[in-house]
Amino acid sequence: xxxxxxxxxxxxxxxxxxxxxxxxxxxxxxxxxxxxxxxxxxxxxxxxxxxxxxxxxxxxxxxxxxxxxxxxxxxxxxxxxxxxxxxxxxxxxxxxxxxxxxxxxxxxxxxxxxxxxxxxxxxxxxxxxxxxxxxxxxxxxxxxxxxxxxxxxxxxxxxxxxxxxxxxxxxxxxxxxxxxxxxxxxxxxxxxxxxxxxxxxxxxxxxxxx
Length: 210
Description:
This protein has 210 residues and is an alpha/beta fold. The chain contains seven helices and nine strands.
């Protein structure tokens, strides 16, 4: 039995080439999800690839928004059958993972997808799909500004400090990405991100691995 494909692709969005896999990375609080939301509203035929998780669905959420919600038994069975490109179990004992068959299907069938990943997950994706991937690192104007953003939206000081401790590690990887976007102005950054995606979709010259 073939694995289930998580994304409801539409035939009219097929490209006459293999699909492209866009990945956004960047420190927590840099605005990746906000940028993605803005950009996806104006991009036709690019599908968001949701992560799978076992955490409970919250008010206002639904299947595929913003995750594929699975039972623990389902997730663990999928781990055993090799259905995750990468996965992790966090301190709350919830699993998170990126569904490999959905990515493979998208690339093989000519659908363009985009998601956000941490730097380690992105490295795994580049190894798995070197000829079909475009990586984009979102960076803050400065670490001080990122710190202000985090303190402005979270009252848990220990949580903020944990996130900030990862920033230096993540920033060391930015030169390994195909593109870097500085998120100093949300609308300008969204415009730049959209331009990158549109350029890559229309020409194979914009990503070194294409």
